[in-house]
Write a structure and sequence with these properties.
The structure is a single chain. This protein has about 180 residues and is of the alpha+beta class. It has a single domain (about 30-180), classed as Nuclear Transport Factor 2, Chain: A (Roll). The protein has helices at about 1-15, 15-20, 25-45, 60-65, 65-75, 170-180; strands spanning about 105-110, 120-125, 140-150, 150-160, 170. Strand 1 (about 105-110) and strand 2 form a beta hairpin. Helix 5 packs across helix 6 (about 170-180). It is globular and about 45 Å long. Residues about 1-20 have low confidence and may be disordered. This is DUF3828 domain-containing protein.
């Protein structure tokens, strides 16, 4: 009997049943929403004439982001920044953390183990490699907080590192401030 219990416990541990029970699945699943956002961002800054891809359009909000993130985005969107469409609460690209960038270079993505239901996916890239600025070869780091909702991984926050202050800036906190008119 004890042997059967050990075998069953082993099968449960390695079969992904924890995923069905509310844990986040394997690293490939955790990176899926991040990869979609980074593919769009890479395309946006590529040396081509393709249309700009809104990483917060309705279809992406519907399947890539958590309910809490979407609620904060929709509240912030009531206070659009000055942009061509007049709908975005941001007047900068939240991934490159600026208004200007070059084609993204040396992009890497790594998922950390799940801690308290959150997987952090760290993305690093050079956003200014085509520039002559002294910091042109510096890496930009963006940390995506990924949680599981409805059985799939979704982005719950996007955290950028402020190079000047060495602080981490949460996009959800920024959206909450925008929604308050700040």
């Amino acid at each position: 009997m004890k042997t059967i219990a050990v075998v069953i416990a082993s099968l449960i541990a390695f079969s992904g049943i924890s995923h069905a029970a509310g844990g986040i699945g394997d690293a490939a699943d955790v990176t899926a929403p991040v990869k979609e956002i980074m593919d769009a961002t890479r395309s946006n800054w590529a040396d081509n004439n393709s249309d700009w891809t809104d990483i917060f359009d309705a279809s992406r909000l519907d399947h890539l982001y958590s309910r809490d993130f979407v609620a904060k985005y929709q509240a912030a969107a009531q206070f659009p920044a000055v942009d061509d469409d007049g709908i975005s609460p941001f007047d900068y690209d939240v991934i490159v953390n600026g208004q200007d960038a070059c084609p993204l270079e040396d992009l890497t993505m790594a998922a950390a183990p799940v801690v308290d239901g959150v997987a952090e996916v760290t993305v690093r890239f050079k956003k200014s490699a085509c520039s002559d600025a002294p910091d042109a070869k510096d890496y930009t780091t963006v940390r995506f907080q990924v949680v599981e909702e409805g059985g799939k991984p979704v982005i719950d926050d996007i955290v950028t590192e402020n190079i000047e202050t060495q602080a981490r800036d949460s996009l959800k906190t920024t959206m909450a401030l925008i929604a308050k008119g700040q």
